[in-house]
């Protein structure tokens, strides 16, 4: 069965069209567009009209591909920014008219469960229980489990939210970085109250902040999902990359060949979330996964 999954987050919107069988998911198309839907939501509580329009343009292109490729089932999930916005109805109406189906604005717990499902299927090189951490633009999900989810918690820290809240300098000042760290530590404490992270044997990191940090730690000359997927990097490597990114200007970060242009301004915050949470949960390494909530959405269409 051919399915189409769309994940619309705070920073990006992504499409996966895949052929799904009982035990395998084979990519037909996998795309990502930075639309920054969550622009300003942390301050205003509303989705900006220009952000909704950027998302509409990207979604229209995805809808055309879905029709052309003949997907039998379609599911679109929207996460942190559209959960938090007071004008989320405007976003939902736009999606309905553009895609022909309504988006599911899911809870943080459902987001966590879909992320876990996408990440652990086919995972090699790690020992369960897994702590899956999905660092998004507006929120971060913590999920503990083996075959299924044992505990999950979503907290409101993400690379876009923290950048807009604190990291205004180019490069950020030590005071800005320290304020960001305090927010992350507080959020990790909230997650730990619900998720017994000490039971985890393997930390699995998802989403663009983690995969970009991994690409930088590996010293890749170009972004290569095949080399990043299931690569393991140490806490010291994460700390080194994070320190470097936070000391650099926007122009210096943009010069990395693995850096997506839409991630340049928020990667420092995303890397800091990964570094602080590794310190807080005592993880010596993290396994990066290119498979995440998008894959979980696709697998859910088999039910």
From TrEMBL:
Residues 17-298 form the Ppx/GppA phosphatase N-terminal domain. SUPFAM superfamilies: Actin-like ATPase domain. It comes from the Bacteria. CDD domains: ASKHA_NBD_MtPPX2-like. This is Ppx/GppA phosphatase family protein. It comes from Cryptosporangium japonicum.
